[in-house]
Amino acid sequence: MPAVSDYTAPDLTTELFTLEADEDATREGRFAKWLDAEGIGFHDGMTDPEDFPRFLEAFHADQRVLWGVYDGAQPAEALDAGYPVATYGTMVHPINVGAAQLEAHQITAVTVRPSHRRRGILRSMMTRDLREAKERGLPLAILTASEATIYGRFGFGCATFTQSVEVDVRERFEITAPRSGTTTLVGREHAARLAAEIFEGFHAVTFGSVGRQYTYPRRASGEWGRERPVEDRAVRMAVHYDAAGTPAGYVSYRFVGWETTPYTMKIVDLVATTPSAYLELWRYLGALDLVQRITWDEARRDDPLDWALRDRRCYGVKGADDVLWVRLLDVAAALGARSYRGSGRLVLEVEDSLGLVDGSYVLTVVDGVADVEQVDAATAPDATLTVNALGSLYLGGVQASALAAAGALTAHAEDAVHLLDTLFGRAEEPYCITHF
Ligand SMILES: CC(=O)SCCNC(=O)CCNC(=O)[C@H](O)C(C)(C)COP(=O)(O)OP(=O)(O)OC[C@H]1O[C@@H](n2cnc3c(N)ncnc32)[C@H](O)[C@@H]1OP(=O)(O)O
């Protein structure tokens, strides 16, 4: 993709670029300066110069589009003008919406330097980007948010959640489900490949899951550390093989250290393709000698683990996080691709302050399969909601009845809320363990 330039404000230049394998990976190159500018936004240290080529390889593999906003009119002693004052990045990965894998426009690396904040730089980048993503035919945009107050104004709704758990694995820990298969530590040389393969299996069967970027299997395997793309020797990975000998899940973990009591193992990543693989990985974790507590920040909100324990009070929820925020760019394509529960017909009036998708849509579902059509604004709606509320409703992680009770959805027809709850609801919550 060629570099494109335009002006965000009189003194500012916006440049978009993608990375080829032969991109300059030295400290003086535009990639290094972009990466360090992003690090400023998230209070990270400057990148070690020897790490740039590996980060470049990762960004290239993800086919990221990087945006930099440059200010050539800063004081002479300011950080050199090659460092953007704002960063923004996008890439595309599939999201599992049941009946289909939709290409989702992912937004990441959003930063604006303190000297330039609250002048509309984010608004300018995001409104342009959402419009262009829609023009390219992408049905929805997704992101994970640093703060819950930023993205509502751009039409995003919070859609999936995880919880942080602590599990007491002392004597009283016991999984009551029948045993199956085997779980064993794997050699580092096999770990990244197994992590990638197992994640593919998980993603294929998990509603709400988003395909992962290049770094994930490397971090899960310990090939890359959390901060730097160098081996983290403290990370170990165990794989569960089902009764047929097929790899069906993995857990990678890291000991917190002897100074922390109770002695704690922290899960770096846990991915299971079946409920039984999930419980077997926990059986393995519970059997680690000298460990008294396991912590994990990515459990499902409807985690079955406590129901598989002899003493369910071993399981404690320490916090909850939102993960995916969803913004529909094409209502008919996004709603039409998703699978539903039951049958029914509704006219939805969608409000969008950015003007990308506002209008009325008829959603007709027959035995879980949808047909969606935009209709004349004069058609009487059964429910009116903002595009944000539709984003929250979209994956079934938030119920229409909760949105209605919160004043975020207005029903005009009796039973509209109940029907939305039925159609969009799911036996299992949507679950995304990909952050970007
Ligand atoms: C997907 C991701 O990457 S999440 C990471 C987001 N980035 C961070 O948290 C890094 C630290 N923060 C920043 O770099 C900046 O403060 C940003 C990127 C969040 C905002 O950039 P700015 O250029 O200052 O935003 P901009 O001036 O365009 O503001 C647009 C609107 O959002 C509002 N806004 C911006 N940031 C925030 C915030 N943190 N909380 C609440 N409102 C906010 C502004 O008030 C403005 O509102 P209005 O248009 O209704 O008047």
TrEMBL record:
Protein name per Swiss-Prot or TrEMBL: GNAT family N-acetyltransferase
GO molecular function, one term: aminoglycoside N-acetyltransferase activity
Subunit architecture: Homohexamer; trimer of dimers.
PROSITE patterns, A to Z: GNAT
Signal peptide: none
NCBIfam families: PRK01346.1-6
InterPro entries membership: Acetyltransf_17 (IPR041380), Acetyltransferase_Eis (IPR051554), Acyl_CoA_acyltransferase (IPR016181), Eis_dom (IPR025559), GNAT_dom (IPR000182), NAcTrfase_Eis (IPR022902), SCP2_sterol-bd_dom_sf (IPR036527)
Record's keyword terms, sorted: Acyltransferase, Transferase
Domain of life of the source: Bacteria
GO biological process: aminoglycoside antibiotic catabolic process
Any Pfam family the entry gives: Acetyltransf_17
CDD domains found in the cross-reference section: NAT_SF (cd04301)
Positions bound to acetyl-CoA: V110, T111, V112, R118, R119, G120, I121, L122, R123, S146, E147
Family (UniProt): Belongs to the acetyltransferase Eis family.
Residues annotated as catalytic: Y151, F436
Annotated N-acetyltransferase domain residues: 46-176
Organism: Arthrobacter echini
Key word Transferase present: yes
